[in-house]
Amino acid sequence: MNLVSIRLITADIDRLVEFYERVTIATALRPTPDFAEITTAAGTLAIGSERTVALFTPGSARPAANHSAIIEFLVDDVDAEYARLTAIVTDFVNEPTTMPWGNRSLLFRDPDGNLVNFFTPVTAAAIAKFTR
To answer: What's residue 12's pLDDT?
Structure first.
């Protein structure tokens, strides 16, 4: 089994897709007006409009209601990303901070309030974990 994507449901797909295109410096694939994907080497961030929820079960997902998940991106230099993101992000949770598990992390919120973590491993153990 492989985890291949995380999907966000949003009431404003154009706004959220534009935000993630800017922060990831990637172009989203938009096969329909209600669905987009930003693909990285490790997986895909999918973004669906709230209209897509009815295809599953109406009411099974709600836009802008996440308070438990953090979307994480491994970056080369979290401090450089922080400097770049100050022109894009309006809601930083913290500045780059070295965590006890060895990653230097930057937390911010996307326009729907979802937490996003850009991180760079900085200790030997953390670097080894991500350079296999």
So the answer is: 97
